């Protein structure tokens, strides 16, 4: 029974690794500079003494022109980090202190 499986992580982060050709009308998170941000996220979480966070690389999350995008569960919080400092703030505020970073949240719309 699934209820008997222990939860290992407090947060599960999905990061978009979609790469489209330059000039594609939808754009892509990797084309918008996601790679160094996700590398920073992975590196900082690895260095955190008690990382209750799992990170999963995904394909397109559907809101390409807004990217780079990441979504954090179980809350379903969507972030648009632009700098490595944004990543640091998300880790400290959201993952360590439990407070989502309002200024980096995006509400996805079709």
Question: What report would you give on this structure?
Answer:
- By secondary structure, this protein is of the alpha+beta class.
- The protein is 25% helix and 17% strand.
- α1 crosses α2.
- It has a four-stranded mixed beta sheet, with helices on one face.
- The chain is globular.
- α1 links the parallel β1 (11-16) and β2.
Question: Characteristics of this structure?
Answer:
110 residues, 4-stranded mixed beta sheet, 2 helices, globular
- Helix share, percent: 10-25%
Oligomer state equals single chain
Summing up helix and strand content along with how strands pair, one would put the structural category as alpha+beta
N-to-C order of helices and strands: EHEEEH
- Cα gyration radius (Å): 14 Å
Task: Give the structure's gist in a few sentences.
With 110 residues, this protein is an alpha+beta fold.
Write the layout of secondary structure elements.
Elements: E1 11-16, H1 34-47, E2 53-58, E3 70-73, E4 77-79, H2 84-96
Parallel strand pairs: 1-2
Antiparallel strand pairs: 1-3, 3-4
Helix pairs in contact: 1-2
């Amino acid at each position: 029974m699934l209820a008997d499986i222990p939860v290992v992580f407090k947060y599960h982060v999905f990061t978009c690794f979609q790469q489209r050709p330059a000039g594609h009308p939808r754009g892509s998170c990797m084309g918008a500079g996601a790679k160094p941000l996700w590398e920073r996220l992975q590196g900082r979480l690895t260095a955190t003494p008690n990382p209750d966070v799992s990170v999963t690389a995904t394909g397109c999350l559907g809101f390409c022109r807004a990217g780079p995008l990441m979504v954090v569960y179980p809350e379903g919080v969507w972030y648009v980090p632009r700098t490595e400092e944004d990543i640091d703030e998300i880790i400290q505020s959201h993952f360590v202190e439990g407070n989502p970073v309002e200024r980096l949240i995006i509400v996805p719309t079709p």
